Amino acid sequence: MDENGNDGNGQVKRGLKARHVSMIALGGCIGTGLFVASGSAISQAGPLGALTAYFFMGMMVYFLMTSLGEMATNMPISGSFAAYSAKYVDPALGFAMGWNYWFNWAITVAVDISTAALVMAFWLPNIPQWIWSAIALVIILSINAMSVRAFGETEFWMSLIKVVTIIIFLGVGCLTIFGIMGGHFIGLRNFSIKQAPFVGGFPAILSVFVVAGFSFQGTELVGITAGESQDPQHSVPKAINEVFWRIILFYILTIFVIAAIIPYTSHSLLGSSTTDIAISPFTLVFQRAGLAAAASIMNAVILTSVISSANSGMYASTRMLYSLSNSGYAPKRFGKTAANGIPYYALIATTVVSLLTFISSIAGPKIYMWLVAASGLTGFIAWFGIAISHYRFRRAFVKQGHDLKELKYHAKLFPFGPILCLILCILVIVGQNPSAFMHFDWTQILVTYISVPLVLVLYFGYKLKKHTKIIPLEKVDISPSHEEEDLSKLNDN
Question: Where in the cell is it found (predicted)?
Fold first, then answer.
């Protein structure tokens, strides 16, 4: 280790194995959005309405992942989104995307440790919730401080728990549909009751796009891990190629089973967007099948999911701050690494922000609400940045006379993929709360959309200060050989 605390070259270590990357890609898209909020999607849009929304959102996420895979295998770096936006579009966009993503996950860690306390209250309601939140934060900080392999192993096993739960759920659900469990045949009759299979038309499907979009957020973590993967040219494409089938299996089939067993008119589904584990659609299906301990089992799984989300959030935000430092967008101190390859200053800074956000949830609920609102759309904004970066990367690659065979991984159906992602991201962002505009409710508009002007302020503020311009395609640096610290040179252009 040198005098600055680096491990010899100031770089994070490539400690993630292929199985870690694969499971992180899978675990990133399985969370409380599927375990708890999926029921509200069915109640809003009906069985086929929810399936339609999840299918199109899943297709968008798949194309987004292939776009990310093409760039990540060409230039595998830790905290890649800001770097790709800076290299392929505009340094100002890299600055805005990076700080946007870091802020999003730093706030999400605080939200998740608060949620972990709510989940623990299911078993131990008399213990103060802040104690459970403090324990969760210490556990997450410890895992991220040890090594990237410790993070990878933890995520592997927590993701495996979620995967096994869904597989068991699908098996129990199918047996229940055919009457083998639960005592009577259900079939597809819930697909045709009242207004089913479609309820509420396109506006309802659009509202479910929002729910589905939040459910899928986290899949882009595989791009963050590329810089610490032992073999990114192999592990990243493998993980991404598996995402499509996993989305079909773990989302489409899950929504189908829930919709078949529980009618969209069920009052339990209407409340399933809350943290009440007793009305999780998974719990309801297990109870229909006659499993008495369903609530406790699902509570344990959801606790695992929440801890996994916070763990991933701490990792993602730390690596993004590290990347911002090496790109010249954040103080150099955050780019220092310890002997084990962990960017400890970035980890401490992220922990402090998460802790302050959590404290505000106790001392100042209004401040906490605004912080959470400010991070609400940042995931979709990050996806927008990935899509436009890939579109520009591929166009620059061809314009500069390169053969696509030179790429280690090819994104599917270019340019359809990134264009579809751009359109759906804009649609979801605009469709967050259209009724607020209809009623000119400026408070709701600000709470819902505050992350959009924040990103615009970051983008144009940096642009005006550094006088950056959108990089012409013929001058875009598509070389895979440049390390991420070279990105700071873009600030001088």
Answer: Membrane
Phi-psi region of 5 (alpha: psi -120 to 50; beta: other; left: phi over 0): left
Residue 240's nearest CA partner among 227, 228, 223 is 223
Buried b (16+ CB within 10 A) or exposed e, 244-260: bebbeebbebbbbbbbb
Cα separation, 311 vs 307, whole angstroms: 6
370: its two tokens = 């605004």
For every residue of 19-40, DSSP letters joined together read HHHHHHHHHTT-SHHHHTTHHH
Q: Does 490 score more than 50 pLDDT?
A: no
What is the value of pTM for the model shown?
0.85
Burial class (CB in 10 A: 0-12, 13-18, 19+), 486: middle
d(CA 95, CA 307): 29
Check the CA dihedral 210-215-216-219 and report its sign: positive
Phi, psi angles (nearest 5°) of residue 81: -60, -45
- ∠ CA(91), CA(96), CA(102), 5° rounding? 125
Burial of residue 436, with CB atoms counted within 10 A of its CB: 0-12 exposed, 13-18 middle, 19 or more buried: middle
Cβ-contact 481, 487 below 8 angstroms: no
pLDDT at position 403 is 92
Task: Please report the domains of the chain, with CATH numbers, ordered by start residue.
Answer: 18-492 (1.20.1740.10)
For 139, phi then psi, to 5°, come to: -60, -45
Separation between Cα atoms, residue 270 and residue 274, nearest integer Å: 9
Question: How far is residue 71's CA from residue 233's CA, in Å, rounded to a whole number?
Answer: 11
Amino acid residing at 263: P
Q: List the Cα angle 357/363/368 in 5-degree steps.
A: 40
Residue 380 CB-density burial (10 A; 0-12 exposed, 13-18 middle, 19+ buried): buried
Q: Give the sign of the dihedral formed by CA 208, CA 212, CA 215, CA 217.
A: negative
What residues have CB less than 8 Å from 60, skipping those under 6 apart? 420, 421, 424, 425
Q: Which residues contact 265 (CB under 8 A, 6 or more apart)?
A: 43, 193, 194
